[in-house]
Amino acid sequence: MNGAIPVIAIDGPSASGKGTVAALVARELGFHYLDSGAIYRVAAHAAARAGVALDDEAALASLARALDLRFDGIEVYLDGQPVGDAIRTEDAGRAASRIAALPDVRAALLDLQRDFRRPPGLVTDGRDMGSVVFPDARVKVFLTASAEERAKRRYKQLIEKGFDANLAALFQDLTERDARDAARASAPLKQAADALLLDTTGLSIDQAVFFVIDAYRAAA
Ligand code: DC
């Protein structure tokens, strides 16, 4: 039974910093890390490559079921090839959010995500890690920040990677994506009743990491 393997589930809106925090918590505890958003991004990328329309639920679900995906550090491999930053653009995020609204696609990706639960433990981030994928997670955190703060963080991230970025466009994009992720019927973005709320507006990354580790130790 893998129920004994602890999971720390960190959910929240786009660019809230949950990925950075989750990866650092995993490193600190020596746990595995799963960026579930990358799975949706890679699935959308694979669909574009195969010429599958982003609203063809049946074709997308069968593509998702057969997804040959592997993580190595922060690099993601699709069919054995690194996808690099192609899945990190705003377009890729928008495409991921579109296919993520389709229930058959979400169902097709469940086992793939659950396979990452391995000893000694898993830290994972996404939208439904605590509510659907790992409902028995030891600690659930809903990590958020104001939309302005999140747009600024995403702007900084994109510029650092050498991408073009426009703050106003990013703000609009983030709020639209969050609205779609929150409004969908299947596993919407929403704070679970048993999740701890962490608003990182004005907090440092270290403070957020400390909060999660503290919550884990208190729950262990
Ligand atoms: O966390 P992210 O920005 O990389 O996620 C990209 C999109 O994937 C996001 O807009 C919604 C979707 N997603 C999801 O529906 N469920 C998850 N667990 C993770 C991501």
Summarize the structure.
With 220 residues, the protein is α/β, with parallel strands linked by helices. Helix content is 50%, strand content 15%. The chain has one domain: P-loop containing nucleotide triphosphate hydrolases (Rossmann fold, 3-Layer(aba) Sandwich).
Brief descriptors of the model:
220 residues; alpha/beta; Rossmann fold; 3-stranded antiparallel beta sheet; 10 helices; 8 strands
Shape: globular
Secondary-structure element order, N to C: EHEHHEEEHHHEHEHHEH
N→C terminal distance: 18 Å
Q: Profile the largest sheet.
A: 5 strands, parallel
Helicity, in percent?
A: 40-55%
Fraction in beta strands? 15-25%
Low-confidence stretches: none
Q: What spatial order of strands do you see in the largest sheet?
A: 2-6-1-7-8
What compounds sit in this structure? 2'-deoxycytidine-5'-monophosphate
Overall mean pLDDT: 94
Number of helical segments with 4 or more residues: 10
Overall domain count: 1
The CATH topology turns out to be Rossmann fold
Q: From the helix content, strand content and strand pairing, which structural class follows?
A: alpha/beta
Q: Rounded to an integer, what's the Rg over CA atoms?
A: 16 Å
Q: CATH homologous superfamily, by name?
A: P-loop containing nucleotide triphosphate hydrolases
Based on DSSP secondary structure assignment, what is the total number of beta strands? Answer: 8
